[in-house]
Amino acid sequence: METVWQRRVESAVKKAILCSVFAGFNTNVDAVVHCNGTSIASLLQDPDVSLDAANALDVSQIETIREKNEFVAVLKDALGKGKSFYIILENLELLDWLDQVFANRQELMGGQAGIIANQMAALEAKTIAYTSLLSKKQASLFFPEVLYPVFEEDLQLIPVHQAYNPEDQLKINWIFEYAKGIEFDFGGEKIVTPRANRVILATRPPGVVMGFAGEIHEHLPELGSKINVGFLAGYHYAPSEEPDLTEYLNEITNSIRMLRSGNPNVHLHYEYVPMKDQEDEKRVLTTISREFDSFGINENEIRRVLEGFGYLEERRDIDENERAFSLYRGALRLMGQLHFSRFHIHNLGYYVLMLKKPYPVAPEVVRDCCLFGSSVNAIKAKYGGYVIKDQLPEAVEFGLSDLGLRQLRLFYEEAKALGLDIPDYFCEEGIWDHDDCYVLVVPAHVIPNPVSTVGMGDTISSSCYASEYSSVLASR
């Protein structure tokens, strides 16, 4: 079995992104901190930080960060559990404090749209980006090959470095990364990280709009005609008050339909980020799933979505025994609730995908494109930064993870034990033609102690999905 999958990887790394890619709307500057003993010691030395006060807080009840001890509590909890965490920095006065405490930081392109745009450009795709705030610093972090829409008498695509607005504010997010097996000392309490992950502390400056703004609206059909695949991100910033939420959902629905009017065959993907309010999140997901084709989410995030929609049994199953089959059961529930035709769960060591029939791309192609995406992500994990085409053959040397190959076998055995119609060759193919869906389990690479975890989900989803449409173009 391993040999069959290895041959597929050898073929997958030869793929190219041939389509035109659009990325909007969520871009920012990431201030990246690699957590170690020194950085945590510096944090705890602040006279305003009290470990007793932080330990007394219930992290599950912290919805935004308003003061220093809340941040310490969230960071400590994430380190101890090895989980990813995303939370909003409500008190922007803490930004100066973060600058002082974490002086050894690296400032990089952040935000799903920014990361995807740069990675697609690095893979030599024609890439167009759009964001409502494009400061000079933000523009400078894009690859120079990325294009940006501007308007004179008609729509023009110009290099993004020439398109910035000197009056636009800067959106900055703090990323706290940590490796597996690192020990931290919290006032004598030793914490060892069980896996590599990160905590994201995000900001929301005035003027940021997660959608198309201003004069671009009347040009959306023309913009749509110039793209094949679109990755739209940032809808988790939707307003929570009425009538603002309803107006926002109407606006994004209308803009997407205008975009599609210029190209009915454009393929749109939404990469999940949690919202503060679960009821609002349900409305947003239900609405946008009618307009999008593809949805990306990880193994932790799907638990939250299942809980939000009331699928507690599936949530508990993942909590108690996270495996490919429990993720499939969760995805199956959500596919019945939402309207996406493609549901992609990316987990450490393997991916689980659901494709609604009739799906426009053969499941074998989707599977092999997932191996391409895994190869891109493996190179990124090993070296950091953005991956260029010439680096991809090295991924063949890494080998697919034993974890992913084992999940293939366990999935088959569980389905068989339940009397389901899974084929005997499932472990070799990773494809199950079941009822109105194709179910895929695809083993992926695992890189020990990755250089970076920021943007991994975005990299996986965009590389997999863009290569799907590119494979269609290549076959014509």
Task: Kindly summarize this structure in a few lines.
By secondary structure, the protein is α/β, with parallel strands linked by helices. It contains 18 helices and 19 strands.
What descriptors fit this protein?
476 residues, alpha/beta, UDP-N-acetylmuramoyl-L-alanine:D-glutamate ligase, Adenosine kinase, small domain, 2 domains, nine-stranded mixed beta sheet, six-stranded mixed beta sheet, 18 helices, globular
Remind me, CATH topology of the largest domain?
UDP-N-acetylmuramoyl-L-alanine:D-glutamate ligase
The named CATH superfamily of the largest domain = Ribokinase
Which strand-content bin applies to the residues? 15-25%
Strands of the largest sheet, in order across it? 6-1-13-14-15-16-17-19-18
Question: Kindly, what is the distance between the CA atoms of the first and last residues, rounded to a whole number of angstroms?
Answer: 31 Å
Please tally the helical runs, counting DSSP H or I stretches of 4 or more residues. 18
Give the helix proportion (percent range): 40-55%
**CATH architecture classification name of the largest domain:** 3-Layer(aba) Sandwich
According to CATH, what is the class of the largest domain? Answer: Alpha Beta
Quantity of strands, as a count: 19
Number of domains: 2
- List low-pLDDT spans: none
- Mean model confidence by pLDDT: 94
* Radius of gyration based on Cα positions: 22 Å
Which structural class matches the secondary elements?
alpha/beta
Shape: globular
In this structure, how is the largest beta sheet organized? 9 strands, mixed
